[in-house]
């Protein structure tokens, strides 16, 4: 069935009006010019990339691309590139540790720490190494849980939750959203069975992250709010720095989700609360959930982008130093967000520079991150001879060369 490009523009206009957005606001949220927005709605300019269609669907809260195209289409992130280790992870999840010899808690702790460190440190082999670690660790932690009881079992469950949280972030990054949902749910279950409320809060943050990635903003906000409430209602001893950090991280995710629903006042309130907590605990990495003043600054940028306030986001970008960020993932997010802002403000040289920084930290990010790939496509579409020498290697690394 042929897609009527003119009708897509009409449908976008209808959904924009339903959400009470102006053309200028929708253009800012999607990352295009007002002139382009007008041309798309009038039908004089077509939406030629699936990624851009997905962006419109996400901003307009459209869960089925058929509502925009008029024909059945699956809503998936553009540029999804399957990773060879994904099937091994899927198999390990199904096997649930049966027939695997346990290695003991001490060795498991070492292996889990090694895997998380590999994910949070810059490396050109980051995606491949962690993909291999995850499949093996899923088998080992489940075998440990299967063969233990009492306190050792609870300790094994805590390690299992940490492994499933790592599996969640890796599977999400490589586009395996179905797997990401499964492991995020297992992470919460294991943390609860381990009777570890702080870990359960971190696992809830992971669950909310994949809900967010699937466009389920309302559900993501509900998970975040419930986790904050549960941690805040715990009686007994004074909260530990780890608990403060987990609550702070939940506030940051809540701010991002509020911004995605154009709830600017709630987003600002959550960011301010997170900043207060960050000032108290400093730069932390409890439960491998990086939190601190640097991460608050990064979320102020991403929240401004979600609200379509590119000028504000760029002002924050130029005042932010990410060298103190404990995880390469946070730095990569900053580089890509900065590149998006510069591209929107017609500064391709700065945008390419920031994408180059992302590539030097982890070149695989260009292959698997849909936002990075879309930003590179936009830069390539208008590239001048002056930036080609720097842009072309990035396009090659992302697999975007003809």
Task: Describe this entry's structure for a reader.
The chain has 402 residues and is an all-alpha fold. The protein starts with a helix and ends in a 5-residue tail after the last helix. The protein folds into 4 domains: 65 residues, lambda repressor-like DNA-binding domains (434 Repressor (Amino-terminal Domain), Orthogonal Bundle); 114 residues, no CATH class; 123 residues, Serine Threonine Protein Phosphatase 5, Tetratricopeptide repeat; 76 residues, no CATH class.
Characteristic terms for this protein:
single chain, 402 residues, mainly alpha, 434 Repressor (Amino-terminal Domain), Serine Threonine Protein Phosphatase 5, Tetratricopeptide repeat, 4 domains, 21 helices, 71% helix, globular, disordered N terminus
């Amino acid at each position: 069935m042929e897609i009527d490009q003119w009708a897509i523009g009409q449908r976008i206009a209808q959904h924009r009006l339903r959400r009470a957005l102006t053309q200028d606001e929708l253009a800012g949220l999607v990352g295009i010019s007002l002139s382009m927005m007008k041309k798309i709605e009038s039908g004089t300019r077509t939406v030629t990339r699936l990624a851009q269609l997905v962006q419109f669907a996400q901003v307009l809260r459209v869960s089925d691309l058929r509502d925009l195209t008029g024909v059945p289409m699956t809503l998936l992130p553009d540029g999804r590139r399957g990773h060879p280790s994904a099937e091994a992870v899927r198999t390990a999840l199904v096997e649930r540790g049966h027939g695997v010899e346990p290695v003991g808690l001490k060795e498991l702790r070492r292996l889990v720490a090694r895997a998380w460190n590999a994910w949070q440190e810059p490396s050109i082999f980051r995606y491949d190494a962690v993909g291999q670690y995850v499949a093996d660790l899923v088998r080992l932690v489940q075998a440990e849980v299967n063969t233990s009881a009492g306190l050792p079992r609870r300790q094994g469950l805590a390690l299992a939750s940490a492994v499933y949280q790592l599996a969640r972030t890796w599977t999400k990054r490589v586009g395996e959203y179905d797997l990401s949902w499964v492991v995020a749910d297992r992470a919460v279950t294991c943390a609860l069975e381990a009777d570890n409320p702080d870990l359960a809060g971190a696992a809830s943050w992971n669950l909310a992250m994949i809900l967010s990635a699937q466009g389920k903003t309302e559900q993501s906000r509900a998970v975040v709010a419930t986790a904050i409430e549960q941690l805040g209602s715990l009686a007994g001893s004074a909260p530990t720095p780890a608990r403060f950090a987990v609550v702070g991280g939940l506030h940051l995710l809540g701010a991002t989700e509020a911004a995605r629903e154009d709830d600017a006042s709630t987003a600002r309130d959550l960011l301010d609360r997170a900043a207060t907590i960050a000032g108290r605990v400093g730069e932390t990495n409890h439960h491998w959930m990086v939190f601190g003043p640097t991460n608050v600054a990064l979320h102020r940028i991403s929240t401004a982008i979600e609200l379509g306030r590119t000028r504000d986001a760029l002002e924050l970008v130029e005042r932010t130093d990410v060298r103190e960020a404990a995880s390469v993932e946070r730095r990569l997010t900053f580089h890509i967000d900065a590149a998006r802002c510069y591209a929107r403000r017609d500064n391709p040289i700065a945008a390419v520079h920031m994408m180059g920084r992302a590539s030097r930290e982890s070149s695989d990010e260009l292959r698997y991150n849909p936002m990075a790939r879309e930003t590179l496509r936009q830069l390539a579409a208008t590239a001048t001879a002056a930036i080609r020498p720097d842009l072309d290697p990035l396009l090659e690394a992302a697999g975007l060369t003809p």
